[in-house]
Amino acid sequence: MRVTIAEDSALLREGLVRLLADEGHEVVAAVGDARALLGAVEKDRPDVVVADVRMPPTHSDEGIVAALEIRRRWPAVGVLVLSQYVERRHAAQLIGDEGAKVGYLLKDRVAQVGEFLDALERVGAGGAAFDPEVVRQLLARGTRADPLARLTPRERDVLDAMAEGLTNAGAAERLRMSVSAVEKHVASIFGKLGIAEAAGYSRRVLAILRYLGS
Questions:
Q1: Which residue in 46, 65, 138, 192 is deepest, having the highest Cβ count within 10 Å?
Q2: Which residues of 156-183 are buried (b: 16+ CB within 10 A; e: fewer)?
Q3: What range(s) does the HTH luxR-type domain occupy (predicted)?
Q4: Residue 87 and residue 62: Cα distance in Å, rounded?
């Protein structure tokens, strides 16, 4: 794949460049701030962007704002965001209403090379990849007036897998269940969350948005 990297730490940026090159990917640009990222994407139109959430000049949310702009202007470009922390609002914004070609990983996951590369390739192929720790922290929020509180533990496991970007087959393999059992749990999740089938909307994406919502 053709990849653009946006990371203000020169050490991590160069490490990612070498890692991806060793794995046969082409790094078309490696930049250190959000403005340069947008310019590089406009010029090169990579398959996937790997971007830090916090970048110069304020080191607050420049990276995630740029990632959202990329999804708006160039929806064919996949976006994999790296962060030191879990921020529910940004995760929900990033997934948007399409739920495809997007990922959110904690930076610790980059050290797990196989998992990082799997997430990158999943996003590049049109899927989603959310860090398991992001998912766990989202699930751990309070349950007062929370529609997710109606889900059984197994249904929560299935929704957990869905939010990580796994297909029904992938969830079945992860949870050691049959695909048909996962499909039944997914249907039950839709029912308990009150997500009816409607033209022009993906119930799966709506369920994940409900899950990621603040």
A1: 46
A2: bbbbbbbbbbbebebbbeebebeeeebe
A3: 144-209
A4: 14
The whole-angstrom separation of Cα 211 and Cα 21 is 35
Cα separation, 104 vs 133, whole angstroms:
10
Stated pTM of the model: 0.68
- The length of the chain in residues reads 214
φ/ψ of residue 116, rounded to 5? -65, -45
| 33, 56 contact by CB (below 8 A) | yes
Tokens representing residue 163 in the block: 């939010």
Distances (CA, A) of 214 to 79, 124, 130: 22, 27, 17
Strand partners, 51: 6, 81
Helix or strand or coil: residue 214?
coil
